[in-house]
User: What shape does this take?
Amino acid sequence: MLIALTSGNLYARGGGQGFGGYNSISKAELEASWNGQAGPQHTAVRGVKVQWYADACGTANGHVTDAKECINDKQKSLTTKADNS
Assistant: This one.
């Protein structure tokens, strides 16, 4: 019976290991900690030190090499509003 209870808890919560289950670290969490430079990033998220790569726009695992190609959130929202008008 103890094994059944433990197995159910591990199944429901993803086992607490890796990036599965509720311990998942989102791309948005990584990008929120971007240091403003392209290249390797080191971020602590919920007590876990994560190493990831950012492009020139701060996108996790992105491929933009020139910051001039980046569109900031303000420009994106203005463009979206203009397109919807």
